[in-house]
Amino acid sequence: MDVVTAEEMRAFDRDTIERLGIPAIALMENAGRAIAEEVIALCRRRASEAGVPGGGMWGAGAGAAGGVVRNSEAGVPGSELGRDGAGVVGGEARHVGAGTARGGVWRNGAGISGAEVKWEGAGTTGGGMMRDGAEAAGDVAGALSGRGAPGFGADAAGFSVGGDAALTLAGAGGEHWLVLAGKGNNGGDGLAAARHLREAGIAVTLVYAAAPESLAGEAALQRDAAAAMGIPAVVYGKDALDLAACSGIVDALLGTGSAGAPRGAYAELIAAANASGRAIVSADIPSGLDADTGETHEPCIHASVTVCLAFLKRGLLQYPGAGAAGRVVVRSIGIPAALAREGGVQVSLLTPEVLTARLKVDLARRRSPEGHKGTYGHVLLAAGSLRMSGAGLLSARAALRAGCGLVTWALPEKLLPYVIGSVPELMLAPVTGGDGEWNAGTAAEVLRLSTSRDCTAIGPGLGRFEGDTEWLRRLWEETEGPMVIDADALNILADTDYRSWSRRHPVILTPHPGEMARLAGISTAEVQRDRIGLALSYAVQHGVILVLKGAHTVIATPEGLAYINITGHPGMGTGGAGDVLTGIISGLLAQGLEVDQAAAFGVYLHGLAGERAARKRDHPAALIAGDIIEAL
Ligand SMILES: NC(=O)C1=CN([C@@H]2O[C@H](COP(=O)(O)OP(=O)(O)OC[C@H]3O[C@@H](n4cnc5c(N)ncnc54)[C@H](OP(=O)(O)O)[C@@H]3O)[C@@H](O)[C@H]2O)[C@@H](O)CC1
Ligand SMILES: Nc1ncnc2c1ncn2[C@@H]1O[C@H](COP(=O)(O)OP(=O)(O)O)[C@@H](O)[C@H]1O
Ligand SMILES: [K+]
Fold this sequence. Notes:
The protein is of the alpha/beta class. The chain contains 22 helices and 22 strands. Helix content is 36%, strand content 14%. Helix 6 packs parallel to helix 7 and helix 12 packs across helix 20. Bound molecules: ligand NPW, adenosine-5'-diphosphate and potassium ion (K). The site of potassium ion has 11 residues, from strand 8 and strand 9.
């Protein structure tokens, strides 16, 4: 799934309207319909969870951020990416990629999951889910199609009649939604949604943030159509308004055209909507969110559902924006998906489909019947010190669990007695360099060891030592094969301008945000402000594969492509989890995966294992790094 900036989105809008000749009003109509369908789906979900046939339950209810989303919900077509709030009991995880990857990666029941994740290949399960919508309790279309209508004889006659299931809501009379409309096209989308909601029998009131006369173009057409249908409207600041006196709010105040923090009436409406406690469905992005960086301005809507239009926006994947968006559903509105490919969109959501179709990863990780340990490669790991002996053990065990044939751990001789026998599958190669600890002289020994290995991983638990820059420089310039650089080895790089170092083979850097800050010479807060943008520019400028760790890890390539991973769990915030990732990526490299494949697939598998490990604990806070290895 492609992930775009606001500017790219505008270009695709323009292209669709001007080159393909699809009128802007048609796109807005599709957007409005999609938003209305998601509002109705939310009403159904919370009604079914409350045991009420149809709508009618006011309040944020189960649809609110942090609520539980179930697979059995009456869905609508489209791809979606939903999350529960951290620590919600009963969250679930589900990844459905289109095509080959699908069967292998279905997962359910993440249990206590802070990262409920769900995506579906558009146009595959999507269509089927729309039909399933008819099965919602008391659904008119369901009855029309013969289900639950004895005597209609649909099956016998081979004849059936379907209705507009996704835009039908039993118990709609119990719902009253406010549509907050800005004066741009985002407002226009909301106004179009209002008509569809009204058609479904839901009471709707429009709340204009600005004088309705100030709307222009397609948004003005929508304003007039809503007025002609007699939909009641109030103007903020002019008419009386109680945002809590409704069953839900559509946020169509600001979209990709917004700039800076919301001002005036927009800011006041956002704050009041958040304070109302009602479920909020955002059109395209939560108002107040920076669509590119994920920065949340003050104030920013906290949505239950965000109906993202046409393409996933970068800001919806990056925290804190990802937290403000609630459950994200990407809905097509008539802008061809191919425009993103042709337009050179750089960023993709790391789905099983992207792993197989774009990165050509064999998710099944087939092993040859005649294979032996030599078939699956040999990792050399340079890691560990007396104070951090465990880091090397974690990386080495993770590499083995990732499926490589052999791991040799180059470690300081003084550490050897303490780790002998800890991991019997491991080969230990003590390096001395004179004093039995890491020192500049050990570079030659590590280099010698590396000659017969398929990849080299450097850094976990390494510590810093005199001459470490020269030490790393020699390994950087002289080791054959791909290299993974982590932890203190990253800090060594951060202290020097390594761009002058020469290297013939690819390098993967795996910084957490603190290490990234040191590498880039900025603060950690600045790193987190736009993780995708920073990872991309750093990878391109330094010619490395950059794995920027943390929730929604970004994998960026020197060619200027990036993949955003959404597997993982907050329970993985525990010492050594990063050492495990280094081991997994190295283990995949040794098996012959290319650097971009190993980095992306390694991050993906690491996250899956973290989710699985979290499910196994009574509470995910108990998760420790070794559990991730055992869950691989
Ligand atoms: N055919 C299409 O183009 C399609 C468009 N689509 C939809 O359009 C959305 C983009 O629409 P857009 O470009 O009209 O901008 P939008 O987000 O409505 O905001 C602009 C308005 O907000 C105002 N404003 C800005 N910043 C502000 C602030 N900080 N605080 C307060 N006000 C602020 C600004 O006012 P100004 O500053 O200019 O006076 C202007 O009036 C997109 O997200 C999607 O929903 C899709 O359906 C696909 C098809
Ligand atoms: N909230 C989270 N969601 C998903 N993954 C997480 C989360 N917190 C941490 N992780 C993952 O756990 C790992 C932690 O790595 P790191 O900070 O380097 O740990 P250490 O240095 O102790 O080994 C990273 O891969 C990171 O992406
Ligand atoms: K919005």
